[in-house]
Design a protein that fits this description.
It is a single chain. Helices cover 28% and strands 23% of the residues. It is α/β, with parallel strands linked by helices and 158 residues long. It has one domain: Glutaredoxin (3-Layer(aba) Sandwich).
Length: 158
């Protein structure tokens, strides 16, 4: 079960696609859309991150920063971000600390024993670091987040 609404969002320190460290606490005072995805360059994940890219102005109007997180290496994430022109950080959770903290671990991803990836999940976190919206799917292979719900949650925080 993923981190619940009303819980304090766990902080993290992860490298983005350019090698710069990011923490959740750096965004204090701003709302955050934290989107975990299983794997760069997979069709559903491509669509997910591009949908957030295409919704960015709407989310920025809600004082929200978008952050993508996968367990892929930052070098893969860099190519992924470049290919899709993603203007927000794509963080590498290569040591799986964030997916464990948010309880969004997809064990044995793609039938690879011992290879844990992120379950497709989205958290809207307010400027004080409290989870105000949480969504996670049991079927990360095909399900997309409910984008309208995510946008509404962010807009509500304004």
């Amino acid at each position: 079960m993923a981190i619940a609404v009303g819980a304090a969002a766990p902080d993290f320190s992860l490298l983005d696609q350019g090698g710069e460290a990011h923490t959740l606490s750096q965004h204090k005072g701003r709302n955050v859309i934290l989107a975990f995805f299983p794997a760069a360059f997979s069709g559903v994940c491509d669509t997910e991150m591009c949908t957030f890219r295409d919704s960015l102005s709407e989310l920025e109007n809600a004082n929200a920063d978008v952050i993508g997180v996968s367990v892929d290496a930052r070098f893969s994430n860099a190519e992924f971000a470049t290919k899709h022109n993603l203007p927000f950080p794509i963080l590498s959770d290569y040591n799986r600390s964030a997916i464990k903290a948010y309880d969004v671990v997809w064990p044995n991803f793609a039938g690879m024993d011992g290879y844990d990836a992120a379950t497709r999940s989205v958290f809207v976190i307010d400027g004080d670091g409290t989870v105000q919206y949480a969504w996670a799917t049991e079927d990360s292979q095909g399900n997309q987040p409910p984008y309208d719900d995510v946008k509404a949650a962010a807009a509500k925080l304004g």
